[in-house]
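Many introductory courses stop at the sequence. We go one step further.
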Amino acid sequence: MARWITSKAAPRVGLIGFYGFGNYGDELFVDAFREHLGGHLDIRVLPDLTSSPYFTRPVRKVVRGVDAIIIGGGDLVVPWKLSPLYWNKAYLDRPVYISGVGVAQLKTTEPSLANVRALQEFFRHRNVRYVSARDETSARWIEMHLAPRVPVVRAPDLVCSLTLPGAAPSEDVLGIVTRHRSGHADDYSVVQELANRAIARGMQVRQIVLGVGITGVKDLKHAGALEVPGKQVVHSNRLDDLSRSIGGCRVLATMKFHGTVVASMYGVAPVSMMPTVKSVRYLNALGRPELVSHFSKRSLVDALDPLPDRIDPATIQRLRTESRAALVDLRERILADR
């Protein structure tokens, strides 16, 4: 069984996930870990490359430099594809804590038996000390198909735990989030109609480029595909700037999942324009399934008639409390295992 490195300093914990690529939600996961685990644990992102092999040094040598590994955030469990970034067996040389993951699901893609078996082997390893999933469906799938040795904890998306920057609420701003999708020529004509409807209501249209770094550059270049005269475009490499711009909206129509999550935590009504499984699950958990739509669906144009209610403060508080409790539990488990 893997042992801790003996040290009087704070335990060194390496993060593994889709970090450093500039995707808004994934970078917020890092902030969530640092907010709730930092001060007790020395948190660091381990991979230093954004393409294979993901590390400039041998992985086992990198792993030897930390006391434990957290694999966390996002739909990292992909039944039809085994990622060498997330599920490298070298991580199992140290205690591993799998935190807040989702199970990716596509109606058109069947699971690979070989990949599921590889995931089983990883999750059942004696050095996997903790597993939490960000929704009930993911938790049940992990229990049924991977059967880890430890119980699977249920917790809301970890981004719900964040202390978000203050934002001035608005009654007259429609936020819109599009995204660059490689190999897709998306038609935004319905989104343009939604924007025109907002303008006719006396609202301002704010297009938020919800990415930083390379992802932000791609999304900014793609933002021009939405032709709305007089729109405000928000682009920044500071996550707080992007979050604050969401918090200043009345409604956010978004193609990005964590646009939905962050908007909801500000109380802003999020209209999901990409009805992925995780978006549907999240909006159902909010008790707001009517906010699921699609950027090409004609009914999207009516999303402002009437303006959807803001998110219930009690729901926001519940999600924040449960998400923070999961991270505190994770922190205490890591410290107790030392």
